[in-house]
Amino acid sequence: MKKRIKGMMSILLAASMGMTLLSGCGVKKIEDVKDTSAQTETTVTDAVTEEVVADTTETVDDSESSSEIVKADSGSLTIYTAFEDDQIDKYLESFYEKYPDINVEVIRESTGTLVAKVIAEKDAPVADVIWGTSASVLLQLEPYGLIKGYTPEGSDLLDPRFYDSENEEALWTGCDVYETAFLVNTELCDEMEIPVPHSFAELTDPMYEGLIVMPDPTSSGTGMLTVNGLISMMGEDAWTYMNDLNKNIACYTTSGSKPAKMAAAGECVIGISFGYRCATLLADGNPVEVVFPSEGCGWDVEANCLINKAEINPCAYTFLDWAISDEAMNKYATEYPITGRGVISSIPEGYSETPLENLCDLDLSKAALERDSIIDRFSPLLAGKEAN
Length: 388
Known about the structure:
The chain is 29% helix and 22% strand. The protein has twelve helices and 16 strands. It has helices at 85-98, 111-120, 135-138, 186-192, 221-234, 237-246, 258-264, 275-283, 314-323, 326-333, 355-358, 364-378, and strands at residues 3-6, 10-12, 29-31, 40-43, 57-60, 69-72, 74-81, 101-108, 129-134, 147-148, 173-185, 212-215, 249-253, 270-274, 288-291, 299-307. The strands form three sheets. Strands 1, 4, 7, 8, 9, 10, 11, 12, 13, 14, 15 and 16 form a twelve-stranded mixed sheet that branches. The chain has a two-stranded antiparallel sheet with strand order 2-3. Strands 5-6 form a two-stranded antiparallel sheet. The longest helix has 15 residues, at 364-378. The model is unreliable at 1-24, 26-57 and 59-66 (pLDDT under 50).
């Protein structure tokens, strides 16, 4: 049994903007996805859907639907995901153990790129399922008829906020919840004699001018959830705030984790990112502090859905059941304090002890509907600050 990870080129930061401190904001750099296990074959070619061979199938009666659901435990499966590269194999380990006869091909992209890819392939979909991608962005596929409703086994155990509990057949189900966090380089703060900021409000102080890096919400799910959170908490005033914040932004990145990595490396002082990446960089021993803003955190659900195709791959149903199973949830809980079922385990190092209380009030469906207008309004702020 083999898994292949295929990735399009990821854009990283490398060059100086005139300051040694911000040496990451300027020049294009191509970094290929690295092999992470003996089961992984890395390539950069386009995905090719493999023929599904279902030697063993399970038929599920569904009186409400026009056809039976057929599941399989052998064959091939193509998965699109926005999970971090260092998470994919760890999460899939239990799936490999349970279904050794399903060959898995994983294509990993950033959230915006992934969804754009699915839309571009709408006339001949390649992916069988999407796994671990922002729900509010994933829902952009619904108007194209690219999501087929399916309520996996175990959905009744999910927190109603973290899956599509409104439709009879769920359009998406959640793996985990990720939230806005800042990673602050404490060594640089000491050298510059500036305090560690603990709120969104503090980030607009002129002392932080040119010291902050943020993900671009037009391409990054992390950037979008941060903006969604600001709009939810501030309403129309969020746009005044983001214009003020923009004065202190050195550059915007296409990657949600890149600002945190830059802060850890001393390439910026403050990286606006998400909790998981900030916590892992703290655990690695970097001179940093993880901050969950005091006003509340924007958030989203890393979610799964079934791609609507002329012929549904039976292995896709099997995978979606597994993706919210006990085994999968326990894996997610090792790195995220909030899973699709809520808090189910001890809080990983680097996180707040009250993660659910950190989340702002947010309507993911509303965020999905407003995404295009948000992109239109935010795009002018990128001028001259795009990360290449």
